[in-house]
Amino acid sequence: MKNQIQYKRHKRFILTVASLAILMATAIGVNAAEISHSEFLTYARTDYPKLLEAMIIGYDSRVTDYTGTLSKQERVNGKLRKPQTTNFKFRNRPFSIFMQWTKNPGKIDRLLFVKGQNKNKMVVHPTGIASFIKSLERPPACKEVFKANLRSCDKFGIRNMLQRLQTNSKTAQLIYLGETKVDNRNCITIETIVPMADKPNEFTRMTIKVDLVHRLPVSVTSRDKNGNLLSTYTYTNLKFNTNLTDADFTKKANKL
Questions:
Q1: Closest C-alpha among 233, 156, 175, 157 to residue 51
Q2: CA–CA dist 231, 225 (Å, integer)
Q3: What is the DSSP string of 166-215?
Q4: Which domains are present in the chain?
Q5: Residue 7: which pLDDT band, with cuts at 50, 70 and 90?
Q6: 1, 65, 67, 134: which could join 91 in a potential S-S bond, CB 3.0 to 4.6 Å?
Q7: H or E element at residue 49
Q8: Please, which residues have CB within 8 angstroms of residue 157's CB and are 6 or more apart in sequence?
């Protein structure tokens, strides 16, 4: 009887210690992912690599999916393309994206890509004389894509954008431009001058607007040293963590 009581006490002690360990680990994780508002603004003024790192850590700790509208314009193969607008829904895992063009769709007006599904191809609906076809399957990085776009659909998203911004971030000159608004969201604007490693006399000037609530970039515009537009991307109508499921990324659900 005495041994049973001691065993129960010992078991209770172990469970208590384990629970405390889990709580401490959770607290440490939250503290590692979150920094104060003033510290975030300090990074925005003085330390571009740390600012990007803080945004990536914050994204990874908080964001599972999001929906919204993407407005973009890109210079592709030396030619400035028409501005485009798409409504989209996106999920991190598995990587899932559906896009529907509402302005200047080009050769397709709907696109679905789910990593590991549909033979790992994007499913698209063509426009023009081929619009009677319900859908076609194409590799996400096929030649047709890069005739009209700088990147393929499997590179979509804020997380991928942050990773691209990290390229040459340690050599970038940072300029803090103050507060602004994008889609009625309180934002800050920073500008970076990024030297091009393969062209010593060339550089890219980037204007980045960061949402202060979610601490994520919602607008990124890049220009060459002469001020010519290279690309611009702006996210509006953003809604995070909307509990998107597999059912939201089927061909049937998206009329493909």
A1: 175
A2: 13
A3: HTTGGG-EEEEEEEEEETTEEEEEEEEEEEETTEEEEEEEEEEEEETTTT
A4: 37-249 (2.50.20.10)
A5: very low
A6: 65
A7: helix 48-62
A8: 90, 97
Measured CA distances, 207 to 87, 120, 167 (Å): 23, 34, 15
The total number of residues written for the chain in this structure:
256
161, two tokens: 């954008």
**Rounded CA separation 183/234 (Å):** 9
Neighbour-count burial of 74, counting CB atoms closer than 10 A to its CB (0-12 exposed, 13-18 middle, 19+ buried): buried
Token couple for 235: 């996210």
Q: How far, in Å, CA of 181 to CA of 184, rounded?
A: 6
**H or E element: which one contains 40?**
helix 37-46
Give pTM, 2 decimals: 0.85
The answer to whether residues 53 and 39 touch, using CB atoms and an 8 Å cutoff, is no
